[in-house]
Amino acid sequence: MRQLPSVGVLLVIFFVVGGIVGCDRGPDSLTTPVEQPAGATQIQELDPIPYGLKPNEDEWVVLLDPTIDIEDLADDAGASVVGAAGYSGVNLALLAAPGAVPDLNQPGVVAYVQNTGVNLSTEGASLVIGFIGGNFTETNVRAQNALACLELPVLHTHAKGDGMKIGVVDTGARLDHVAFAGRLEILEGHRLKSGELLGNGLDDDGDGDVDEGLGHGTFVAGMVALVAPGATILPVKVLDDDGYGSMLGVVEGILVCRERGCDVINLSLVLSAYSSEFEKLLAQLSQEGIAITAAAGNDGISNPFYPATSEYTVGVTAVTGDDVMPTYAAGGSDIWFAAPGHRVVSAGVWSPDAMAVGAGTSMATPVVSAAVVLVREAQACGAAEAIGHLGATCAPTTPLHAIGRGRIAPVAACTD
């Protein structure tokens, strides 16, 4: 079984050139002050990176050593500074070089990548969300048949996730939804937001569909709240209502979760391809004791997507209430766990007490995110140990050999 490495102290960040398949980042074009997180490197008096920037192949996202002067670096590289932000042990800069490729192979540059665009795609579709009538109540939603295998009433006698924090890097969340009352940490003063917009009625990514990512982040965060009601949820909006965004947003979203002390980072999205550079980022996060869960994608059993296939993430697929993998759910030996994700009910985005029904590996992933913190609490252990307990207590799925471990059984994992 793959183990999370021991805790490390130095963050080294790398980028992947490629796309993300998943969800949403807001269309706003406001410039807001950037909060310096506690413990962050103090950067020069430079403009913050504007919020809501569209992808632009004339722009470059750069991570660099905090001792490097950003403007001098830009001059040497043949670029100009659009904005910058500081995080613990690393500075983030957005540089512009219209019509040119800047020379960023400079001392102190940790990594750099074009600010390319990414889109929601049916190839890795991580959502099927529909409206369902009635008002959301925790009693009703927790009692749904699809979640019966989790034994939530018994599970919550062992742990509720108290003192734990889960970052949801997604389309944001409807902050006034009753499912999240007293459970959210909301980003304030940061260029990334927490709230999910209700859609702009536009086909922002030009794929012929309008607002197809709407409600994804609210649904995912709602699943976390159902399974780990004592945990704090940090929604980080990096993708928009069409599932459109950039690598800049996703990597900074992960940085924000790390900076704010998340125990688990939920990635209900997929990248277009494996990247050894992004793998180094995931490795460093796991060394720091942060568990990263990732949706396997919905392109069939034999086609799991990265980063769910990474040795440093917990890959998750979906099963029905009878532990059967739907034909769309990706699997394989690199996908560790299955969890309920087919026709499950969670929080909807349309009103503060809306319900939604969803199907996909995106919906199963937050169930595992929540289970990790519950086991950590019950067993008084770290992330690697919690994942080990979950792996040792799984129930079999059908087809039997479609995934590495099986369907999680969190009650057994909390008590084994």
Can you offer a commentary on this structure?
The protein is α/β, with parallel strands linked by helices and 416 residues long. It has helices at residues 70-77, 138-142, 152-158, 216-227, 247-259, 276-287, 361-379, 383-392, 410-415; strands at 20-21, 56-64, 80-87, 90-96, 109-115, 117-118, 129-132, 165-170, 232-237, 245-246, 264-267, 270-271, 291-295, 314-319, 337-340, 344-347, 355-358, 406-407. The protein has a seven-stranded parallel beta sheet, with helices on both faces. Strands 3-4-2-5 form a four-stranded antiparallel beta sheet, sandwiched between helices. Strand 8, helix 4 and strand 9 (232-237) form a beta-alpha-beta unit. The longest helix has 19 residues, at 361-379.
H/E topology pattern:
EEHEEEEEHHEHEEHEEHEEEEEHHEH
User: What structural class is derived from the secondary structure elements?
Assistant: alpha/beta
Number of helices: 9
Give me the side-by-side strand order of the main sheet.
9-8-11-13-14-15-18
Largest sheet: 7 strands, parallel
**Residue share in β-strands:** 15-25%
Question: End-to-end span in angstroms?
Answer: 18 Å
Segments where pLDDT lies below 50 for 5+ residues? 1-40, 119-126
In round numbers, the mean pLDDT is: 83
Q: From the alpha carbons, calculate the radius of gyration and give it in angstroms.
A: 20 Å
The helicity comes to 10-25%
What characteristic shape results from the CA principal axes?
Answer: globular
**What is the strand tally?**
18
